[in-house]
Amino acid sequence: MKKSRLLSGLLIVVLMVFSFGGAAFAHEHLADTVVDIAVDTEGEFDTLVAALTEAGLVETLQGEGPFTVFAPTDEAFANLLAALEIEAEDLLAHPQLEEVLLYHVVSGKVMSEDLETGDVETLLGENVAIDASTFMVNDAEILVDDGLFDLEAENGVVHVIDTVLVPDVFELDYSENGEEELQSIVEIAQANDDFSILVEALVAADLVDALEDDGPFTVFAPTNDAFAALLEALDIEKDDLLEHPDLADVLLYHVVEGAVFSTDLEEGMEPETLQGETVMISLEDGVFVNDSEVIDADIEASNGVIHAIDEVLVPEAFGAEEEEVPQTGDIGMIPFVVAGAAGLSGLWIVKKRK
Questions:
Q1: Which of 97, 262, 278, 342 is deepest in the core (most CB within 10 A)?
Q2: Which intervals hold domain FAS1 (predicted)?
Q3: Spatial distance between the Cα atoms of 326 and 315, rounded to a whole number of angstroms
Q4: pLDDT digits (tens, 9 = 90+) for 132-148
């Protein structure tokens, strides 16, 4: 009996020695970096490692840190690729790949027991939402049940997640070569039925080639309704407007050099148009260009941006010798003329506030 107790005691001591010894060994032999954890975990993070390499972030995450990395598995990436109907090569070639990866990294070493519910800023600058009670990061689950959390490295810690985190800045639309291809201002107008009269006007004024140039341009583009209201007010037909000798000047009055998004606008701004006259920006009770309201802002193009407006803008010089054509001083008619010109040029559209 005594011998049995002695053997049991010795066994407990041995187990304790191995337990503490193993813990000490593990502590002294942490992975060098968070990148090494991904590299050394064979078959689990191949896509992540390839993405870090392609984005040039390996050296960054081998720095002193410390970093907390929410690491998507290969299965998580496979699910994303299937949802987007693209290949891995398309994702690796995406111009915003680096932003996506930085959205998975938080500054500091945050172990699972230190997680707190709330928003945490990532290295991208956008926040992720942590739910400490369920171990969720946005809609991704930390694989706690699989033991894939608190994977320590000398410069941080890795928590494995089952879903790729996608930041708001990331565009999920892909072309055949994996990059989003923006259309030109003219192409956008041609593809939108609401700008068909504007397109006709651009063709009639021989401005299509000009607006397909590199730019960039900002276009305040009048819709068909804006043109219809102008034609009714002037009691003329569309053909009369398209044949007007000053049509090009009206259209150019809707275009400003540079890509000016709604967030760049300021109260009282008076940007000069390509026609030579200025327009007045007002931000009271909406976004207005002269008396025309921006109804659809920040339509991004490859050579600028379009802001759809509800009235045609009319420069002071337009129809100066034509009694039937209202000038800028005529408040009631200016909005309609300006809107039409803006739509045709499609060069200065204000981005809607979010």
A1: 342
A2: 32-165, 182-313
A3: 10
A4: 999 999 999 999 999 99
